[in-house]
Write a structure and sequence with these properties.
Chain lengths: ~575, ~200
């Protein structure tokens, strides 16, 4: 068990074993966190480019070095090519969901906190944990690399619907954007699957003695259900991805119906496939996926609220039963994304019913979190501000989902900006706020240093105002009929002033989120504060176990030994 | 002060669950594999029910060879259990014998499979020929990849991995049990694949 000859008597691991290929869940958690934040920023930049096109369609981008770097194929004469807009759209969604939010919510927060909160020394399978991170990293590299192949990246939406995704571009080469997207997804799915095995096993097997199920922090319950969602839903997309790859590279027709004509020529394939097959398989994953996006966030908000009200959560039991019920229900609602595909009224009615039912546990959870404020002695520090704002923001997101879940209303709203407004409300001022709350809440514990309070408040208020500024108008233009994917509203949908308002909000949000890294630097430059800062997440008020552990000074490195 | 940490229930069972960690881990992984092959079986159902005509597999797939393959896999599952039982009875040589047989069965399966595939290609039956052939090659191909993966693990456990018997026999035995669970699953998938692809009538 001893290291090679360069070991000192303190068991010091070499740098690359300590920081790069670590099996320590805290380091892996931070690796996930930093990588995810980089991807979130990149996805944000993609969105800014899109909004330029929407605000000033047909005008050249006035940033010379950017248009030069992007090149003539993407920005001919500085004006955005339609294919490039589609690439931005598809990759913005993919990167934000699969490379940003999930790795941050599950990989970073989950890995760091779950072992601590169940009283374990590490995850159940530390080496598997490390492999999961690196597989995610490779998947990210593949996804980013897909921008640089001939034809550009995937450009058929993050949903990759065939036949468009199969024939765009028509090439058997692996090195096309869509095919690389599929390969990248295989890596990301593998990473998530292995990670969820780890999380679930850790929670079930490594709970400390006396930590019974109904004593677990709600955050742990949320991560447990999330783990099952990832475990059981992702394989459907993996199978679908393999089949789409075969359609693209081996000329199969899983998703290509007979008689398909492209560009005036009939496709030389066997036909007999079904485009709906892809949709079913995709949404079988992608619906549980959205609960993967929200559940860890709810878990974080619960922790932050309990801590900053100085009292236990209201309705712990209802929270737990609701999150379990939500997990089950999330598997039987997927076709509410397919109401307009002609499945028939019977199937539509079924999925409409299950979708209405699934709103109930969400409401119970939100209500319990709100009621947890009652009678509390509320401390309005930065994490609490984000957690409090989560509540109405997620409320708006969830409520605007109801018309979408009703098949008849969805006829009008499907594929409009209303949908974009809905899901961005849940994810941006919803999940992201919760994740920000978590970062501010646990940063002192992780690093032993304080974050800058003023910048934190600036971050909060700026985000709150600008995110609402960006996404609220989308409900209005969506109800007016503006379609979601094309690079400008279709002529019959009228002229919409996307202009300065929402665009300006984005730019301001951008500048404001840039403060994030500076904030961290600021935090690191301060002295370690061993004492209690009443403005920050407070060890004294925490009823969960990650706090009594040594903060920012856990003996490193941790090497794993197995007991009997 | 030691900086090494200890993970409990790595080889001993946790009292309330009755499981050691890797056993729960492999069962969870197998649940995801059920969903993976389940998605493919669902694809078969959707494509078949949506098609006006559907091929009768037995007309151009090699049923006798596939039947032999079925027996080969079932036997390999038996030998896999025997190899684990040998370790439980503290007999390393017997373990090596039975694990070797398991690996040989796997090789046999793959050899027969490659004959089948080669014959298909020679007679002009490719995944692109029809949706039936597409789903046939995808399902059996993915299954075949799982067989290869299992064989790599089994070969490691037969060869270099067996060193662990000397240092930690219980943990090694558990590894074989876990590998055995995976191998049984691979066998079980084939038990479903064979009738669906080879035996079901067409329409």
């Amino acid at each position: 068990m001893t290291e090679a000859h360069h070991e000192e008597h303190h068991d010091k691991l070499p740098f690359w074993r300590h920081y790069i290929f670590s099996t320590d869940h805290k380091i892996i958690g931070m690796q996930y966190g930093l990588t995810a934040l980089v991807f979130l920023f990149f996805g944000f930049c993609l969105m800014l480019l899109m909004r330029w096109q929407l605000a000033y369609p047909g005008k050249p981008l006035p940033i010379a070095f950017l248009t030069n770097w992007l090149g003539e194929s993407r920005m001919p004469g500085g004006v955005m090519a339609p294919e490039f807009y589609n690439q931005l759209g598809a990759m913005h969604g993919t990167i934000m969901v699969f490379l940003g939010v999930v790795p941050l919510a599950v990989g970073a927060f989950g890995n760091y906190l779950v072992p601590l909160q169940v009283g374990a020394q590490d995850m159940a399978f530390p080496k598997l944990n490390m492999s999961s991170y690196w597989v995610y990293f490779i998947g990210g590299v593949v996804m980013l690399g897909s921008f640089f192949v001939p034809g550009g990246s995937a450009q058929s939406g993050w949903t990759s619907y065939p036949p468009l995704s199969v024939i765009t571009p028509q090439s058997h080469s692996l090195f096309t954007g869509q095919s690389l997207w599929l390969i990248g997804m295989v890596f990301l799915i593998t990473s998530s699957l292995l990670g969820s095995v780890n999380t679930i096993t850790t929670i079930i097997q490594l709970r400390a003695k006396g930590l019974t199920w109904m004593r677990l922090p709600f955050f742990v319950w949320a991560q447990l259900v999330t783990g099952f969602l990832l475990l059981l839903a992702f394989p459907a997309l993996e199978a679908a991805g393999v089949m789409q790859l075969m359609d693209r590279m081996a000329n199969t027709s899983f998703f290509l119906p007979s008689g398909l004509v492209v560009g005036g020529k009939a496709l030389n394939v066997s036909g007999g496939g079904s485009a709906l097959l892809w949709q079913h398989l995709f949404w079988f994953l992608a619906h549980p996926e959205v609960y993967v996006l929200i559940l860890p966030a709810m878990g974080i908000v619960a922790e932050v609220i309990a801590n900053n009200t100085r009292k236990p959560l209201w309705g712990y039991k209802s929270l737990v039963y609701s999150v379990i019920f939500l997990g089950f229900m999330s598997f039987v609602v997927w076709a509410h994304h397919m109401f307009l595909t002609g499945m028939g009224t019977a199937i539509n009615a079924f999925f409409q019913t299950t979708t209405m039912i699934i709103s109930i546990p969400s409401i119970v959870i939100l209500t319990a979190l709100i009621l947890s404020l009652w009678g509390g002695s509320i401390r309005f520090n930065v994490p609490m501000l984000f957690a409090l704002a989560f509540l109405p923001m997620f409320g708006i997101g969830g409520l605007t989902g109801l018309p979408l879940g009703l098949a008849s209303a969805d006829i009008h709203l499907h594929d409009t900006y209303y949908v974009i407004g809905h899901f961005h409300y849940v994810v941006a001022p919803g999940t992201l706020f919760a994740l920000f709350a978590g970062i501010y809440y646990w940063f002192p514990k992780v690093s032993g240093k304080q974050m800058n309070d003023f910048l934190g408040k600036l971050h909060f208020w700026g985000s709150l105002v600008f995110m609402n500024g960006i996404f609220m108008p989308m409900f209005i233009v969506g109800m007016a009929g503006v379609s979601r994917r094309p690079k400008r509203p279709l002529p019959e949908q009228g002229h919409v002033a996307f202009g300065v308002g929402p665009g300006g909000h984005s730019a301001l949000l951008h500048r404001e989120l840039l403060l994030e890294p500076f904030r961290r630097t600021e935090g690191c430059q301060r002295q370690s504060m061993g004492g209690h800062d009443p403005r920050m997440g407070h060890p004294d008020s925490a009823a969960t176990w990650e706090f009594p552990e040594c903060s920012g000074s856990v003996p490193w490195p941790l090497r794993v030994q197995r007991t009997r | 002060m030691s900086t090494a940490i200890e993970i409990p229930y790595n080889s001993t069972e946790r009292p309330d669950t009755g499981l050691y960690n890797a056993k729960l881990g492999i069962w969870l992984f197998l649940a995801s594999e059920v969903m993976l092959f389940g998605a493919l079986f669902s694809t078969y159902v959707l494509l078949r029910t949506g098609a006006e005509t559907w091929e009768h597999g037995a007309e151009f797939l090699n049923v006798p060879l596939a039947t032999i393959n079925t027996l080969v896999l079932i036997i390999s599952s038996v030998t896999m259990v025997m190899s684990w039982a040998s370790l439980k009875m503290k007999n390393l040589a017997r373990y090596k014998f039975f694990m070797g047989l398991t690996i040989l069965c796997g090789v046999g399966f793959l050899v027969i499979k490659s004959f089948e595939y080669a014959h298909k290609f020679e007679t002009g039956l490719w995944p692109s020929t029809s949706t039936f052939m597409a789903i046939y090659f995808t399902m059996t191909g993915l299954h075949g990849l799982h067989v290869i993966g299992g064989m790599i693990v089994n070969s490691y456990l037969w060869g270099p991995g067996s060193k662990m018997w000397k240092t930690d026999p219980e943990r090694f035995t558990n590894r074989i049990e876990v590998a055995g669970l995976y191998w049984h699953f691979v066998d079980l998938v084939w038990i479903f694949l064979f009738p669906v692809l080879y035996l079901l009538p067409g329409k």
